[in-house]
Here is the input.
Amino acid sequence: MWLLPQNHPLRRMFAGVTEHTFMATLGVTDTQLIDYLSDLLSRFLHIDDLYRLRDTDGRPIVEVVDMLLEVQKLPKEGRTAREFHRHVGDFTLFWTGIFPETLERRRTPVRKDSFVDYCAQGKRSYFLASTFDDEKLRDESRVLRRLSNDFELCAYGLTQVRREWERK
Here is the structure.
């Protein structure tokens, strides 16, 4: 997973804008949720992380439908299935919140994702990822459950984050 260094100006900008938008504008004070969202923006700057899931042949998986088909091949237990579900949640939230206009372009008859409801699938994927009961993952599981429950609010908040950074 690729991540900007903590002191990188873009990472600091994402953290500041996300915190301001969620706390001041939306009244969301869950710092773990806000940190998760700003880290998501930092991670997805790099295309290799946006499309980090690979099929069995090692090719990047670029559509949600294919991600879901691939996760069905994995054992139900374990970190790998959890990471796939978490990534589907992150992927759908990113496109829904940051680039909602792109979703319309992605809905063409030649794409499998034209039939996917990104909001519903994101909520479902975050929920599934949150159900893995591992002591080390409890804090993140709580955040993933919150993302599942408040997917629409988080997508709206990320849309506002984008508007704010575009003004800067």
User: Anything to note?
Assistant: The mean pLDDT is 91. DSSP finds nine helices and no strands in the chain. The radius of gyration is 16 Å.
